Amino acid sequence: MTTLPAAQAQSAVSSRTEYEAALQLLRDASRSYYGDGDSILDDAAYDQLRHSVRVWEEENPAEVSPDSPTGLVADGAAPVGDVAHTARLLSLDNVFDSVGLIAWGASVQRRLGREPQGRFTVEPKIDGAAVAARYRDGRLVQIITRGDGSHGEDISHVIGQIDGLPEQLAEPVTVEVRGEVAFTTAQFETANEVRLAHNAQVFANPRNGVAGTLRAKDRPYRLQMTFWAYGAVELDAVAFLPSGAAHAETLSAVAAVGIQTTADSAAGLHVVADLAAAQERVDAIAAMRAELPVGIDGVVIKMNDAAEQAAAGVGSRFPHWAIAVKLPAVERQTVLEQVVWEVGRTGVLAPTAVLAPVEIDGSTVTRATLHNPADIRRRDLHIGDTVTVYKAGDIIPRVQGAVVQLRPEGAQPVALPEACPNCGGAINKAQERWRCAQGTACALPALIEYAAGREMLDIDGLGKTYVAALVASGDVTDVADLFTLTAEQLTAASGSARRATKLAEQIEAAKVLPLSRVFCALGILGTGRSMSRRIARHFGTMDAIRQAGAAAMQDVEGIGPEKAPVIVEQVAALAPVIDKLIAAGVNMAEPQDASAAGGAGPLTGKVVVVTGKMTGPLAAYGRAEMTALIEKAGGRAGSSVNAKTSILVAAPSSGGKPSTKAAKAAELGVEVRTPEAFAELVADYLA
Ligand SMILES: NC(=O)c1ccc[n+]([C@@H]2O[C@H](COP(=O)([O-])OP(=O)(O)OC[C@H]3O[C@@H](n4cnc5c(N)ncnc54)[C@H](O)[C@@H]3O)[C@@H](O)[C@H]2O)c1
Ligand SMILES: [Zn+2]
Fold first, then answer.
1. Which residues are involved in binding NAD(+) (predicted)?
2. Is the ipTM of this complex over 0.95?
3. Does residue 212 sit in the same domain as residue 128?
4. Confidence (pTM)
């Protein structure tokens, strides 16, 4: 397996040799980033390495390499063409948070010598490649890359391949628009399909695909991209733009003749009064990021007023009147270690990528969805590939694609199953999502056995053979069917009327169990017993659970951003089963417990430690049941006796020495109660 280049990039630069190696890596990375290939570093790794280089250069000014990329537009790595730009096409300065934005505001004020009077605009920073497009008399005549900012390459061959940049405008105007070209998510999927059909390498991610696609001249296929204008300049003496136009007006003028602008993007363009309002808009755009149809890597704030822009001026790499608030990297590179196939409750074969752990936006990602076999094929994934993984907001992480350049020698394509991984039977491949030919019946017996388990519905008599018979007869197609079985059906499956009666009783008893048990019985991935208890206790009713989105789900202790959407999705998919359970009269509420009722329980604020075997009314209580009981009564279960312990529940030692815990309790003066005395204290909470 290859060493991750990202790992290489982690280290700080501390010597001349390391400095030179870092420069080389940066150069290689940005050459492919701006050139034709997929980047060998993800942006976070690149930025970190670049930062280390900068720090070293500041400390060792005499040793700065004359061709260091750190002071140049596009790090001096973008292919420079021979078309002179009408006006320089610059990069953007950036900040990472509201503090940085305020600092930018202060710098603007210094440059103006007063507070800005005009307003600010807020628009998405689309993660693509910058181009300038020239229209003469309403016709699109030339497209140019950013290059080094003063000269770019002529890429007019892509005219007609870019949505939002029509070949013919509504009016015969002459103007140059500047903006970003990117693949939308949908265009990216299509692009990879087309590439595969032509035996070309798939793209690692939408951003990586664009630079190469724009520059490619001789491809036997065309890939559709999309353009959003974020600025315009006059090309001619005959002015098209309103004189002294503010930024928002410029974009409106451009939009009026049929060119798409950032104002038309899902994130829109807002004009706001001040930077506090701008920050609010930044937050709003950040929140919608995962749902946007195109990747963004930040939000751009600009001074709207043309005269104030001119007064603020431009630097060598970026204008002083605009700032990008960078959003956290949502895409990282890591290694695809294997692909596992699980058979869902409906018989769908779901492939999941197992990844070398990677930190994305504050959480560690180890698994990502691959959707279906077509998805794997479209991305041409091999085991051992360095892949780009995308994870934003509440969504389930997904694999974007492989960095084919980094593929280890001998790597094998991800194998697709030939038989159902669960039952070994045939697979139905009629649709993009493969299914076990048995459908629901495939995963069903295991699910039902699980649901009948002691800590779930506790239907003791429902063993393996019994379940198999009920599933085979078609009487049980999901957990809910258990509750509507007739005496005849039960008898037929068990072969004995007596056993059927006993089973019917147990099933009846299961109807009044707390919600946590029923929820657990649904077999939702990632929700075992204690998690089900926490979810049930947190929401109180099944209704509330069903209404919870991923954000609300994360309020439950132990559910992070990776798990929440998975649970929400499964609950939604189980709607028909849950509806049947409700119709069958199964309890859908968690008994009000003290902790939820605002701390009115007898154990509120108390830490209870339990030791030894329980007796009396608690004789049937195991460790798990005792913990549940304590929590229901408002307390917390502890595992060892210490100064924070409030009560020790222990059966009196029969003649011999007191247990270690009892001895410790005596030493600390902790109250000791027998199981009987404790049961009295929590009598209201006993099942
Ligand atoms: N992964 C790699 O190997 C690699 C290599 C080189 C550079 N990079 C990445 O490239 C970035 C630096 O590139 P850069 O100098 O082009 O800066 P940048 O891409 O961070 O920002 C400037 C660009 O943003 C674009 N933009 C998008 N929406 C805009 C809007 N609404 N208004 C104005 N501009 C808008 C413009 O094209 C502009 O040129 C770094 O963050 C780095 O992570 C990555
Ligand atoms: Zn199967």
1. 43-47, 91-92, 123, 146, 180, 302, 326
2. yes
3. yes
4. 0.75
